[in-house]
Amino acid sequence: MPRRLVPHVVPHAVAAAITAVVLAPLARPGYVLRYDMVFVPRQPLSWEMVAPADALPRAVPLDALVSVANLVAPGWLVQRIALVAVVYLAALGMARLVPTGRTLTRVAGAFAYAWTPYLAERLLLGQWGLLLAYAALPWLVAAVRDVRTGRSGGLARLVLAAAPAAVTPTGGVIAFGTVAVLLPGGFAGWRRVTVAALGAVAALNAPWLVAATTSAAGGRSDPDGIAAFAARAENWGGVWTALAGTGGIWNAQTVPVSRASPLVPVATLVLLAVAVVGVRELRRRWPGDTGRLGLLAVGAFLLAGAGTPGGAPVLRWLVGAVPGAGLLRDGQKFLIPYAVLLALGVALGAEVLAGRLAGRLDAGTGRVVLVAAALLPVAILPDLAFGAAGALRPVRYPADWNAVAAQVAAAPGEVLSLPFEGYQRYPWTGGTVVRDPTPRYLDSPVLMNDALRVGDVTVDGENPRAARARAVLDSGGPVAELGVRWVLIRREPDVAPPAPVLAGLRPVFAGPHLELWENPAAGPPPQAGRRWPAASAHLVAAGIVIFVLAALLRSRRRSWYGPRTHQPEEGSHG
């Protein structure tokens, strides 16, 4: 390979290698179903995907985008494209962002960002939409710097980088906060540009914001969720050490086994020490931007630990009193800006240390240091490899699901999914917990439980109709009085509902895994109310993305490809 191509090709090759190793099980056919990660063969596009009538828009506009993608590609392919994009773009984006002329430093940055507890734990929790924000943030930081330095097309790249982050509410908030902190001041016309950038990113967030205002769900959340979703310790190092290593997720079932090792806190301290050296170097190379990024990272880190005893009282008040504040309950998910700064610091810190050793010993020793820095994240978290040690294994939907979907499609109406739990353990998934696929598989509104069990705690949901259904089921009353057209039941001996619950219904399908009952006395489905405002917000957001993409294509610039060019830096050893 010509030497001049090495800096361009190596980051892509490393990103591809990391992606292949992490997602290796996806070479098998089927669907990876874990917690919130639910893909189906063909997800119908419905009003519930655009503006949920009775639920908070936690998956807006993500579900609608998946449904649109399913118009041209099957669900198994959409899932693989999405997961590959997460890992590949995270690694490549960080490799491009590191301000260096040294290829091995970029490689270290790619591993430091794409091989992290945060990515592993959120992947095991199935939150691939949030991970799109994780993958997008290095690109967004780079685009903000382009705008501040006057690079052509920077504003369009900023909006385009923010778009994948805004497919979930949390990612959209992170993208907006990143632009609000990093962009203002320091260049000619910054007020006008900042207003335009923030306005565009706000418009990308409009789909879920407008859907939240038109939903019948209450905007306030259960304060009991604070303790349930608080960051947790993963070993003897405690909560704050876990967060410092980008771990600490609330769900113990999604934590890789290696995080319990007593050596993990020690390795985390090593990474932090290297990162401190690197951040000092970053301040020299980005004199005006490092402080802003540091402020953003510190804020993200403190928010991640807000559910701990010190901040829990304030957070409980916010969640119970302020509409929409429930978004802050799972604070650990806001660690993304901190992870960006940590990866930059580790990469540059390793380069500085390598340069010092190369000066005292030889260049080969310096290269060994950089290779060791690149492989350290893998040594700390070896079980991210091969689909988190096989946890991300594809499965197939039983034929019952297609049979039920055909029955419901022939006579559309609202569906009640039983057992009335939002998350289920199906035998055909190997007992893996998964969000009930019914709303995505069937082309009809689905009434399901939005309360969440976390250990012995039940965190109440916000859907008023779900609350009424829970009351009917708890009393043993017939579900026919809810007015639903269909009742779908997971067919297992230990979860069968009592006979009085099914009074007034008639069975229409019974397979090995599912039963479908019809309510002959069902009335018309409930009216959804105001949904066109949310649909309009979706169209505006889509129009903005199409416009900036067309603008970039017209410019015929290849600034998204290959490493970013940098002037030789003092202390940089190429």
In a few lines, what is going on in this structure?
The protein is mainly alpha-helical.
Alpha plus pi helix count: 22
Percentage of residues in strands: 5-15%
Radius of gyration: 25 Å
The major pleated sheet works out as: 5 strands, mixed
For the biggest β-sheet, the strand order reads 4-1-7-9-8
Helix fraction, binned, reads 40-55%
Query: Which structural class is indicated by helix and strand composition?
Result: mainly alpha
- Number of extended strands: 9
Poorly predicted segments: 565-574
Give the overall shape: globular
N-to-C terminal Cα separation, in Å?
Answer: 17 Å
Mean pLDDT: 91
Tags for this entry?
9 strands, two-stranded antiparallel ribbon, 22 helices, disordered C terminus, single chain, 574 residues, five-stranded mixed beta sheet, mainly alpha
Question: How would you sum up this structure, described in words?
Answer:
This protein is mostly helical and 574 residues long. The protein has a domain at 98-384 and 535-555. The chain contains 22 helices and nine strands. A hairpin with a 7-residue loop joins strand 2 (423-425) and strand 3. The chain starts with 5 loop residues before the first helix and ends in a 19-residue tail after the last helix. Mean pLDDT is 91; it is low at 565-574.
